[in-house]
Protein backbone atom coordinates (compact mmCIF):
# COMPACT_ATOMS: atom_id res chain seq x y z
CA UNK A 1 0.00 0.00 0.00
CA UNK A 2 1.20 3.52 -0.69
CA UNK A 3 2.21 5.49 2.41
CA UNK A 4 -0.60 8.03 1.90
CA UNK A 5 -3.10 5.25 2.64
CA UNK A 6 -1.40 4.35 5.96
CA UNK A 7 -1.24 7.77 7.64
CA UNK A 8 -1.40 6.53 11.26
CA UNK A 9 1.31 3.93 10.73
CA UNK A 10 3.65 6.42 9.04
CA UNK A 11 3.69 8.67 12.10
CA UNK A 12 4.50 5.72 14.36
CA UNK A 13 7.26 4.51 12.04
CA UNK A 14 8.81 7.98 11.83
CA UNK A 15 8.60 8.43 15.60
CA UNK A 16 10.24 5.05 16.19
CA UNK A 17 12.98 5.83 13.65
CA UNK A 18 13.68 9.18 15.34
CA UNK A 19 14.01 7.48 18.76
CA UNK A 20 16.51 5.01 17.29
CA UNK A 21 18.51 7.78 15.60
CA UNK A 22 18.60 9.75 18.87
CA UNK A 23 19.73 6.69 20.83
CA UNK A 24 22.45 5.95 18.27
CA UNK A 25 23.57 9.58 18.39
CA UNK A 26 23.84 9.44 22.19
CA UNK A 27 25.89 6.23 22.03
CA UNK A 28 28.24 7.76 19.46
CA UNK A 29 28.65 10.90 21.59
CA UNK A 30 29.42 8.71 24.62
CA UNK A 31 31.99 6.66 22.70
CA UNK A 32 33.60 9.79 21.25
CA UNK A 33 33.90 11.37 24.71
CA UNK A 34 35.26 8.14 26.21
CA UNK A 35 37.70 7.70 23.32
CA UNK A 36 39.14 11.16 23.91
CA UNK A 37 39.55 10.66 27.67
CA UNK A 38 42.92 12.08 28.78
CA UNK A 39 43.93 9.01 30.83
CA UNK A 40 47.56 10.06 31.14
CA UNK A 41 46.77 13.54 32.40
CA UNK A 42 48.55 14.85 35.46
CA UNK A 43 46.42 15.82 38.48
CA UNK A 44 45.97 19.53 39.07
CA UNK A 45 44.03 21.83 41.39
CA UNK A 46 40.39 21.93 40.34
CA UNK A 47 36.93 22.51 41.73
CA UNK A 48 35.21 19.11 41.55
CA UNK A 49 31.82 20.62 42.46
CA UNK A 50 32.06 23.14 39.62
CA UNK A 51 33.15 20.40 37.19
CA UNK A 52 30.14 18.31 38.27
CA UNK A 53 27.73 21.18 37.66
CA UNK A 54 29.33 21.72 34.23
CA UNK A 55 28.83 18.02 33.36
CA UNK A 56 25.16 18.27 34.34
CA UNK A 57 24.75 21.43 32.21
CA UNK A 58 26.36 19.62 29.26
CA UNK A 59 24.05 16.61 29.61
CA UNK A 60 20.79 18.42 30.40
CA UNK A 61 19.65 17.92 26.79
CA UNK A 62 19.92 14.14 27.14
CA UNK A 63 17.97 14.25 30.39
CA UNK A 64 15.25 16.36 28.72
CA UNK A 65 15.00 13.96 25.76
CA UNK A 66 14.48 11.11 28.25
CA UNK A 67 12.08 13.22 30.37
CA UNK A 68 14.34 12.69 33.40
CA UNK A 69 15.09 15.39 35.97
CA UNK A 70 18.61 15.67 37.38
CA UNK A 71 18.91 16.88 40.97
CA UNK A 72 22.43 17.87 42.05
CA UNK A 73 23.33 18.08 45.74
CA UNK A 74 26.85 19.45 46.12
CA UNK A 75 28.78 22.02 48.13
CA UNK A 76 29.50 25.38 46.54
CA UNK A 77 33.17 24.37 46.09
CA UNK A 78 35.15 21.17 46.41
CA UNK A 79 38.76 22.02 45.63
CA UNK A 80 40.98 19.02 45.09
CA UNK A 81 44.03 17.84 43.16
CA UNK A 82 42.61 15.52 40.49
CA UNK A 83 43.01 14.59 36.83
CA UNK A 84 40.00 16.80 36.07
CA UNK A 85 39.69 15.99 32.35
CA UNK A 86 39.46 12.23 32.96
CA UNK A 87 37.21 12.81 35.97
CA UNK A 88 34.84 14.90 33.83
CA UNK A 89 34.66 12.12 31.20
CA UNK A 90 33.95 9.65 34.00
CA UNK A 91 31.18 11.88 35.43
CA UNK A 92 29.62 12.20 31.96
CA UNK A 93 29.62 8.40 31.57
CA UNK A 94 28.03 7.85 34.99
CA UNK A 95 25.39 10.54 34.50
CA UNK A 96 24.58 9.26 31.01
CA UNK A 97 24.18 5.70 32.31
CA UNK A 98 21.91 6.91 35.12
CA UNK A 99 19.73 9.00 32.80
CA UNK A 100 19.46 6.18 30.23
CA UNK A 101 18.44 3.68 32.93
CA UNK A 102 15.73 5.91 34.43
CA UNK A 103 12.15 5.84 33.13
CA UNK A 104 10.44 8.99 31.80
CA UNK A 105 9.13 11.29 34.53
CA UNK A 106 11.69 10.12 37.09
CA UNK A 107 14.67 11.75 38.76
CA UNK A 108 18.40 11.05 38.91
CA UNK A 109 20.02 12.30 42.12
CA UNK A 110 23.70 13.24 41.95
CA UNK A 111 25.39 13.90 45.29
CA UNK A 112 28.92 15.11 46.06
CA UNK A 113 29.71 14.93 49.75
CA UNK A 114 32.75 15.45 51.95
CA UNK A 115 33.72 12.38 53.94
CA UNK A 116 35.51 12.42 57.25
CA UNK A 117 37.53 9.42 56.06
CA UNK A 118 39.70 11.59 53.80
CA UNK A 119 37.80 11.47 50.52
CA UNK A 120 34.92 12.92 48.56
CA UNK A 121 31.99 10.65 47.69
CA UNK A 122 30.18 11.19 44.41
CA UNK A 123 26.98 9.17 43.91
CA UNK A 124 24.64 8.82 40.94
CA UNK A 125 21.27 7.35 41.98
CA UNK A 126 19.06 6.37 39.06
CA UNK A 127 15.39 5.38 39.05
CA UNK A 128 15.77 2.33 36.82
CA UNK A 129 16.08 -1.31 37.73
CA UNK A 130 18.68 -2.32 40.29
CA UNK A 131 21.80 -3.83 38.75
CA UNK A 132 21.78 -7.58 39.53
CA UNK A 133 24.73 -8.85 41.56
CA UNK A 134 25.92 -10.98 38.62
CA UNK A 135 25.94 -7.89 36.41
CA UNK A 136 27.88 -5.93 39.03
CA UNK A 137 30.58 -8.59 38.85
CA UNK A 138 30.26 -8.41 35.05
CA UNK A 139 31.16 -4.74 35.06
CA UNK A 140 34.35 -5.57 36.88
CA UNK A 141 35.14 -8.39 34.44
CA UNK A 142 33.90 -6.44 31.38
CA UNK A 143 31.18 -9.01 30.59
CA UNK A 144 28.90 -6.94 28.33
CA UNK A 145 26.05 -9.48 28.31
CA UNK A 146 25.78 -9.56 32.11
CA UNK A 147 25.75 -5.78 32.27
CA UNK A 148 23.00 -5.36 29.71
CA UNK A 149 20.59 -7.48 31.78
CA UNK A 150 17.63 -5.21 32.48
CA UNK A 151 19.59 -2.02 31.73
CA UNK A 152 20.70 -0.03 28.74
CA UNK A 153 24.14 0.62 27.26
CA UNK A 154 26.36 -1.40 29.57
CA UNK A 155 29.39 -0.28 27.58
CA UNK A 156 29.36 3.10 29.37
CA UNK A 157 29.55 1.38 32.74
CA UNK A 158 32.45 -0.79 31.56
CA UNK A 159 34.22 2.34 30.29
CA UNK A 160 33.48 4.16 33.56
CA UNK A 161 35.00 1.30 35.55
CA UNK A 162 38.11 1.35 33.34
CA UNK A 163 38.54 5.11 33.64
CA UNK A 164 38.00 5.00 37.41
CA UNK A 165 40.60 2.26 37.78
CA UNK A 166 43.05 4.18 35.59
CA UNK A 167 42.76 7.36 37.66
CA UNK A 168 42.73 5.34 40.91
CA UNK A 169 39.24 6.30 42.08
CA UNK A 170 37.24 3.31 43.35
CA UNK A 171 33.83 2.92 41.69
CA UNK A 172 31.17 0.67 43.21
CA UNK A 173 27.65 -0.23 42.12
CA UNK A 174 25.01 -0.73 44.83
CA UNK A 175 21.26 -0.48 45.24
CA UNK A 176 19.97 3.09 45.44
CA UNK A 177 17.51 4.01 48.20
CA UNK A 178 14.97 4.70 45.41
CA UNK A 179 15.18 1.09 44.23
CA UNK A 180 17.37 1.78 41.22
CA UNK A 181 21.14 1.60 41.06
CA UNK A 182 23.71 3.72 42.83
CA UNK A 183 27.12 4.28 41.32
CA UNK A 184 29.49 5.49 44.04
CA UNK A 185 32.82 7.06 43.12
CA UNK A 186 35.42 7.70 45.83
CA UNK A 187 37.66 10.70 45.11
CA UNK A 188 40.73 10.66 47.39
CA UNK A 189 41.68 13.94 49.02
CA UNK A 190 45.15 15.22 48.25
CA UNK A 191 44.72 18.61 49.94
CA UNK A 192 44.64 17.14 53.45
Order of strands across the main sheet: 2-4-5-7-6
Q: Provide the residue-averaged pLDDT.
A: 82
Q: How many alpha or pi helices? A: 7
SSE topology string:
HEHHEEHEEHHHEE
Structural class: alpha+beta
| Distance between the first and last residues' Cα | 72 Å
What level of helicity do the residues show?
A: 40-55%
Instruction: Report the strand count.
Output: 7
Strand content: 15-25%
Low-confidence regions: none
Main sheet properties: 5 strands, mixed
Note the overall shape: globular
Radius of gyration: 18 Å
In short:
This protein is an alpha+beta fold and 192 residues long. It has helices at 7-35, 48-58, 60-65, 84-101, 133-141, 144-148, 154-166, and strands spanning 44-47, 69-73, 79-82, 107-114, 119-125, 171-175, 181-188. It is built from seven helices and seven strands, in the order αβααββαββαααββ.
Give your account of this protein's structure:
Strands 2-4-5-7-6 form a five-stranded mixed beta sheet. Strands 1-3 form a two-stranded antiparallel sheet. Helix content is 47%, strand content 21%. The chain starts with 6 loop residues before the first helix and ends with a strand. The mean pLDDT is 82. It has helices spanning 7-35, 48-58, 60-65, 84-101, 133-141, 144-148, 154-166; strands spanning 44-47, 69-73, 79-82, 107-114, 119-125, 171-175, 181-188. It is of the alpha+beta class and 192 residues long. The protein has seven helices and seven strands; from the N terminus they run H-E-H-H-E-E-H-E-E-H-H-H-E-E. Helix 2 packs across helix 4 and helix 4 packs antiparallel against helix 7. The protein is globular and about 65 Å long.
Amino acid sequence: LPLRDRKDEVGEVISSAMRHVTAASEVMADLTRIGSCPVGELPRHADVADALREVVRDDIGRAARHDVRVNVVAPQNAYEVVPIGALAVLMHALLGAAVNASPPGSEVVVTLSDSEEGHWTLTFDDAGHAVPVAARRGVLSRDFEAIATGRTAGVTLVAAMSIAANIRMPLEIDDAPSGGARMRLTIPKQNG
